[in-house]
Design goal:
39% helix; alpha/beta; Glycosyltransferase family 2 protein; Spore Coat Polysaccharide Biosynthesis Protein SpsA, Chain A; 9-stranded mixed sheet; 10-stranded mixed sheet; Nucleotide-diphossugar_trans; Glyco_trans_2-like
Amino acid sequence: MAEEKNYQEAYEKEHIKTADLAERVAVLEAKNEELNFKLSRIKNNPLWKASAPLRRGMHFVIRQRDRLKNCGSIRGVLAKLDYKKIERKAMARYGTESFPDEARAKEERETVFDRMIKISILVPLYNTPEPFLRDMITSVLNQTYQNWELCLADGSDAEHGEVGRICREYLEKDSRIVYQKLLKNEGISGNTNECLKLATGEYIGLFDHDDILHPSTLYEYVKAVNEQDADYIYCDETTFKNGDINKMLTMHFKPDYAVDNLRANNYICHFSVFAKRLLEGEELFRSRFDGSQDHDMILRMTDRAKHIVHIPKLLYYWRCHEGSVASGIDAKPYVVAAAKGAVADHLRRHGFTHFQITSTRAFETIFKIRYEIIGDPMISIVIPNKDHAADLKRCITSILEKSTYENYEIVIVENGSETKEIFEYYTSLKEYDNIRVVTYEKPEGQNGFNYSAVNNFGVKQTKGDYILLLNNDTEVITVNWMEELLMYAQREDVGAAGAKLYYGNKTIQHAGVVLQLGAHRTAGHSHYGQSRENLGYMGRLCYAQNVSAVTGACLLVKKSLFEEVGGLDESFAISLNDVDFCLKLREKGLLNVFTPFAELYHYESVSRGLDDSGEKAERYNRESAHFREKWKTVLEKGDPYYNPNFSLDRSDFALKT
């Protein structure tokens, strides 16, 4: 009886909550109805209609202001205009002009691979407009690789019987086309799963009913299967409008597989082809993630895949029209919730708990993921310093006053200071229990300043579990900067984590390092010099991502890993030691992560000067040559996180000309 009473009381409490919620919903709906009525009256007012041209002009001015703001300066505006000019030229190169000529198409058709795999292309149909349907089917028929089947599951309603008629017209001409009219529409997930039942191929390809494939797409994919044993493959893509693939809106040139990028943003998207065996014991699409079923599927299949291959060629044309996802997130608002759910499910599979997933300013389906900090490990902040009392004081003060993480120590590595002011400042720091000054004595035979040696010495004096290399000419902006770095550095699959750094004028100094970028073809910073407000290429300044390296000006790493790879290579006295260090971590199979959510100012080269003339330039050239030789094989392969279609002469993701 007591149990029943408790159950009844709980039921009544929940009933009251439900009734209260229903009442609040009713009030909100009434307010919404009243607001819609008022808006309707305003919009029908003759004065409102007459002022339309003025409002459009005002909105145009606001948009241009925002664009100028994102560019950061007149120099930024000119760079942006130049970028757009390059992009327009490239668009012509990647459209029908990129299709194989007759001789090349014949060569591809006649190529005999060791594995002539069959690819089953799955296309769920629903009320597909005739021009879209014919374009899609024709693009498959035009594939130079011939061993495919096109599986069409049609969930169209009774008013769209022409979809089935058109499909039957094509399958009568080509037996590789398989068609089934579904008894009812099961939605995009259900209809695609019905397509899968028709498939007999070793590999599965996922294709939207209104998009277009490049004629060489399947050829390139089968080539990757044969040459790289690929079991999951994707390519670069573009959106187009008005039914003409040459009228491109946005070209997306992607990095190779990067798990942190994929968690934050479904950058892989189209055209996904994978070994059917990856589906064993798994559903293809899960209906509870409708709207983001592809992101869920990609996360699951890439988890299972052993050889994920990115074809750095634009081989998929994504049609933009009213109602398509390509036309904007507003077309399908449930996508955001589904995408968060898919990412959360993936993170739980990988053992993560108590994480948070929130939308970023770039786009609602580009996410910030906040991982739980495990325990309360000590972070040892190592800061080399020579004179420059004002710079060091600004750096230390910002750490003390702004940092929300509390378990840290600061180890200042004094190396050759001469001014009275700096030693007075060192004395003033004795009141802090967590700040120590240690003195680096330059060994005999060492010529000049050696940043690597100074830091290695400093690390040996630390007590912490994590090492945070920090320049003395930095200043903290983000109060939880250490937490933002630590949440990545603590992961078992991560080597180094790096922050987003700005110059004093709020333009970007560091947002990840790209191999071979720049005149020396060693390494350079992406998005260099762009405005703090800039979203970056395809939103890349707005989410944490995998990079080849991060700058040593602010770099967090486990102390055990620092020691395991031998610290900083002292043969790189000044430059490239941080990139070399990150590549040593990458060589161990670890990921390096750049996060834009840990922000600092970096008044770069204030303390040591630039490396652009005289003896410093000679030393930089020597170290660059040493770096190119040491990492020759890695550099020849290119940076996996930077598409080879981008220019290595610019940091703004401009395409090669």
